[in-house]
Amino acid sequence: MLLRGSGEHTGDDYDLTAIVAEGVADGGVAAGAALAAYADAFFLDGSGFAAARERLEREVGKEASVDAAAVLAIFNAVVRIADATGIPLEETKARMSVDIRDALGLEG
Asked: What is the dihedral of CA 80, 96, 27, 8, to 10 degrees?
């Protein structure tokens, strides 16, 4: 939602299907392939995480890689809390994101 909104504001065109596509594409995001590999290594099985972290740091620098780690951590925590407590997606956000969820095949 935020990336799509940012793109609409700046005129940038992001390919959000890169999130679920086979292989790692950048999706129109600077260092997007490295960011995706970093997130995949963390959320999947952890294999290759050190290499993905090193690649990300080479591509974006130490400060930005620390920011990416913080985003990864908070996203992981918030999603787990929402899932564990059964917090539903708010109706407004559900309406706003129906096209994205459909495009990404997230509706079951």
From this structure: -130
pLDDT in tens, 6-36: 656 676 677 766 666 666 577 777 888 899 8
Contact 68, 56 (CB under 8 A): yes
- Helix H or strand E encompassing 100: helix 91-103
The CA-atom distances, in angstroms, between 16 and each of 60, 101, 105 are: 20, 10, 12
Amino acid at 3: L
**Distance between CA 42 and CA 52 in Å, rounded?**
9
> Would you state the structure tokens that stand for residue 29, as one six-digit string?
């995001």
Residue appearing with tokens 């999603």 = 79
Digit-coded pLDDT (tens) for 65-81: 999 999 999 988 988 89
Structure tokens at 99: 């096209």
Structural tokens at position 35 = 């960011």
